[in-house]
Write a structure and sequence with these properties.
By secondary structure, the chain is an alpha+beta fold. It has three domains: 46-108, Trypsin Inhibitor V, Chain A, CATH 3.30.10; 114-175, Trypsin Inhibitor V, Chain A (2-Layer Sandwich), CATH 3.30.10; 182-254, 2-Layer Sandwich (Trypsin Inhibitor V, Chain A). The protein contains five helices and 16 strands. The protein has a four-stranded mixed sheet with strand order 13-15-12-16. The radius of gyration is 34 Å and the shape is flat. It starts with a helix and ends in a 24-residue tail after the last strand. It is 24% helix and 28% strand.
């Protein structure tokens, strides 16, 4: 006990502990303010100059003076600028970047650049818009016509394969999801919900709202009624169902189509240039 008392009351022990604490504090300060800043180039960057509205030669010279590289990303025609002037840049002006960063430039051209119009007929509207934008075209008016496959392109105002100026507007005619012919309505009362859905889909119709109703005398998930209950409907129209459930179950309503009959023609998103390292 006396030995332990001498150890814990020793000035040398506390001096040693204090020394370790001081060394640790100094090391932490060195890491924060010397070592890590040098390792990561922290707070050492270049503010991107604004080179828009400058000629390409002037922009190149200015970027070089800032220690930045450049690359011509695109050429567009803009009557507000002289030929070979910068109309856009990425990263934008005043952004802080690392030295030797590459700046992407969009240069005005005296000649209007052209592009080949892609074929977007039968594509979903989202995919069609992506394709047109990737080719430098604009999506114009959107009109709808009756057709079974909703939101798919039926016609485009500029023929596929035509060579046109970039920025040309392409108007689209889109399917509203309704057919032009009448179809026989299947009688699905008494069928299970899954059987009823399949019958409705095979007839060219859609399942709309499904309402569950408690029933003591009917097997759960059996169709009790349907609306509209008529012999014929226009292709693509919606049928609402009332379906049985256990008598002690709480009533629920499920809204929206259960079967997705849109075309699954999704395509990868376009690659966009962000503030990434070259």
């Amino acid at each position: 006990m006396k030995t332990l008392k001498r150890i814990f009351t020793s000035k040398a022990l506390y001096a040693t502990i204090g020394g370790f604490i001081a060394v640790g504090a100094i090391f932490a300060l060195l890491m924060d303010f010397v070592i890590m800043p040098k390792y990561t180039n922290y707070n050492h960057g270049v503010t991107v100059p604004d080179v828009t509205k400058l000629s390409l030669d002037e922009a190149e010279e200015l970027l070089d003076s800032y220690g930045l590289r450049h690359e011509i990303l695109d050429r567009r025609s803009n009557t507000a600028y002289p030929a070979n002037y910068i109309i856009d840049q990425s990263p934008s002006a005043s952004r802080l970047v690392k030295p030797n960063r590459k700046i992407y430039l969009t240069v005005n051209t005296a000649e209007t650049p052209t592009t080949v119009v892609p074929d977007v007929v039968s594509m979903h509207i989202r995919n069609a818009a992506i394709q047109l934008e990737q080719h430098g075209l604009n999506v114009g008016s959107r009109s709808y016509e009756t057709n079974r496959f909703r939101n798919t392109i039926l016609r485009q105002s500029v023929a596929p394969g035509d060579t046109v100026a970039r920025g040309t507007t392409v108007n689209l005619v889109i399917s509203d999801g309704l057919g032009t012919r009448e179809v026989d309505v299947p009688q699905v009362v008494g069928l299970s919900l899954s059987e009823a859905q399949n019958e409705i889909m095979r007839a060219g119709l859609r399942v709309g709202e499904i309402r569950f109703q408690a029933s003591r005398d009917t097997v759960p998930n059996t169709v009790l009624s349907m609306s509209p209950d008529q012999e014929k409907l226009t292709e693509g129209e919606t049928i609402r169902l009332v379906v049985s459930e256990r008598f002690d179950a709480r009533e629920e309503v499920e809204s929206g189509a259960i079967i997705d009959d849109t075309l699954s023609t999704q395509q990868p998103d376009t690659l966009q240039i962000d503030n990434q390292e070259d």
